[in-house]
Design brief:
The chain is mainly β. Helix content is about 10%, strand content about 45%.
Length: about 400
């Protein structure tokens, strides 16, 4: 008995016990990428690299929504045993060195520093707590903690903490402006003090997607092994604002590996939130990693979105809003190409030849500037099923 996709989609929604609208795509889709579970089985959806130490881990949709992903990215690293400053900043006499404290004496004068080995990255946010005892000042001693990139420097790579002038327990929030290796207390005045109970209360860092897994079962995983080209998913401790993968308009892109050959009839749809960057000319999905070849693209500077077939650009005059999610769909049926924005046909033009998609996000010089949440590719004409597919996606994201 034949069951239409509309019926199958409705049945899948009814069978889902948690009320989450899922898309029964297998075995129809050629490739499917999302931060939600598209099959209802909650497969792994992303492999994430945390910037703190480059450790990687896989996550399901449930792991993302439960906070397991952000917990992994924000994992507090080990605080090293306290060290003295070096070079021009070794004027402290230090003792009782441990990973929770030290005693510092700067009676001889001159700028001194002492603190803890601890790695942080640009834009990280650290909350540190410590107790000061035995404070004694003979000439305006007022040390403060800051992140530095070497023990022979007191140049802050974070904003500075509290300049303390008395005993007490202090909590400081440090925001990194560059990568660093140590958290050091420094001062150029004379006196002495003891630090104890030093701890990192929290470390909010960033995470990047190394693999966006294909949930269609066709093993078309989107992979980016080069750290500098991976799209961001967690920024300063939280999921990126629009809840997708952040392509920053510079070097971020995925290699889908073996091409998805679509011929002259195909359909793909995606959920994105366009970044406000005005000079972006990025590939949503294409076959050459740049501006040529076959690709679906978005060009913020010329306010166009469309598809490229060889040397011919087929463009609409409307780019999705950069203030809210948009559902974009492309349907190629024989020689006809249709672009649909938020359920409404925006442009319909002629299309000659097929597409062979390999890259997501462009490559060099033509790079995507969006938050991308979902992208589903069919290697068949889905004209009859488009409404049901889009309705299912919209029921999850509430776009229109």
């Amino acid at each position: 008995m034949h069951v239409s996709l509309d019926s199958a989609l409705g049945r899948q929604r009814r069978l889902n016990s948690v009320g989450e609208s899922v898309l029964q795509i297998a075995p129809n889709a050629a490739a499917a990428y999302s931060l939600r579970s598209l099959t209802g089985g909650d497969p792994k959806v992303v492999r994430v690299r945390r910037e703190i130490d480059n450790a990687e881990s896989d996550f399901t949709a449930a792991g993302i929504s439960s906070g397991a992903l952000t917990s992994f990215v924000n994992d507090i690293q080990t605080v090293g045993t306290a060290v003295n400053g070096t070079g021009s900043f070794d004027n402290y006499t230090v003792s009782n060195l441990s990973n929770t404290g030290f005693s510092a004496d700067n009676s001889a004068g001159g700028t001194g520093s002492a603190g803890f080995p601890y790695v942080f990255k640009d834009e990280d946010i650290l909350i540190v707590k410590y107790t000061v005892t035995n404070f004694s000042s003979t000439a305006s001693l007022s040390p403060q903690i800051r992140g530095v990139s070497a023990t022979n420097s007191v140049t802050g790579k974070t904003n500075s903490g509290t300049a303390f002038t008395a005993n007490g327990t202090y909590t400081d929030v440090l925001t990194a402006t560059a990568d660093g290796t140590h958290l050091m207390f420094a001062d150029g005045n004379t006196g002495s003090y003891t630090i104890s109970d030093f701890e990192i209360v929290s470390h909010s860092s960033s995470g990047f997607v190394e693999t966006w897994y294909d949930q269609s079962g066709n093993s078309k995983d989107a992979v980016q092994a080069t750290a500098e080209s991976q799209p961001k998913i967690v920024s300063a401790g939280i999921l990126v604002t629009e809840g997708g993968l952040l392509f920053n308009g510079d070097t971020n892109f995925f290699d889908i590996g073996s091409s998805i050959s679509l011929g002259t009839e195909f359909f793909f749809t995606g959920v994105l939130n366009r970044n406000s960057r005005v000079d972006a000319n990025g590939t949503i999905i294409g076959n050459d990693g740049g501006g040529g070849g076959n690709r679906a693209f978005i060009n913020s500077s010329t306010n166009t979105i469309g598809i490229r077939d060889g040397d011919a650009n087929i463009q609409s005059s409307l780019v999705p809003s950069d203030s809210s999610d948009s559902l974009i769909s492309y349907q190629a049926s024989a020689s006809s190409f249709t672009f649909i924005l938020n359920g409404t046909t925006n442009v319909k033009s002629a299309l000659t030849g097929g597409q062979a998609f390999r890259y997501m996000g462009g490559g060099s010089g033509f790079n995507l500037s969006v938050n991308l949440k979902e992208l589903i590719v069919y290697d068949t004409d889905q004209t009859a099923n488009r409404t049901a597919i889009e309705a299912n996606i919209n029921s999850h994201y509430s776009i229109f």
